[in-house]
Amino acid sequence: MTVIDDTAQAKPRHKVRALTINQPTEPRTVPVAPSELSILQQAVERGATGEDLKNMLDLYERLEDRKARRAFDDAMAQVQSEMPTIIKTKLVSLGGSKTYAYEDLDSVVRTIRPVMHKYGLAHRWRTEDVGDQIKVTCIITGHGHREENSMQAPPDTGPGRNPLQARGSTIAYLERYTIKAALGLSAAVDDDGRGGHPDRGGSDENNIITEQQLKEIIELIENGESDADLICSAMVPPITNLKEMNQRQFKKVKERLLKKIAQMDQPL
What we know:
By secondary structure, the chain is α+β, with helices and mostly antiparallel strands. Helix content is 43%, strand content 16%. The strands form three sheets. It has a three-stranded antiparallel beta sheet. Strands 1-7 form a two-stranded parallel ribbon. A hairpin with a 2-residue loop joins strand 5 (133-142) and strand 6 (145-153). Helix 1 packs antiparallel against helix 2.
């Protein structure tokens, strides 16, 4: 009897992989805020009258305005919480012992613009003539809302100014104050005598004058009937205001002013 070995002739088995069939999924719908037109269409389909449509549209606009105002207020709160202090670095002598410090418009704009843009706010000005005065309006916009702040004043007809310069002086002044009022900002006097920069150590060229030295040089300028702006521009290197004066410059200016005052005190 012949015995046949079936196992030797058995065919190799192959693994069967399970096939995963992706079932079609319904497209995800993104909620879209209803527009004015869609609201009106839905109202018409429900049999709303003309007066009903007007009331519904007014309600929708009030809700949108409230939403925009809330977003605007939130942005303003963030801006004010992160706004750096605006420093008064410009010094003006009024003659005698009277002086005052102020911040120029360029410094204000360079300080506020990055923070405003970060939170979606922007500013611009509108200028118009109101009788013999100039009216400047600062407009803050963002998030679908806007606020305005206006001031007006006559042209600044100071000594040596032509009519165009007088207008420009007033406009710059009003732009500076309206933007500060619109943002609820104030400026601080740079009372450390260093223009916002700490002493870097080393030579006199690196060390800025102290507050006491600043007061001393201002007093000498007034007593010597000198011009602070001319002194600043004559510095090597030039400076934009007295608070940027270093120790080397201070010594030279002080020496020249003392000599000038001494000559003024000599009898004719």
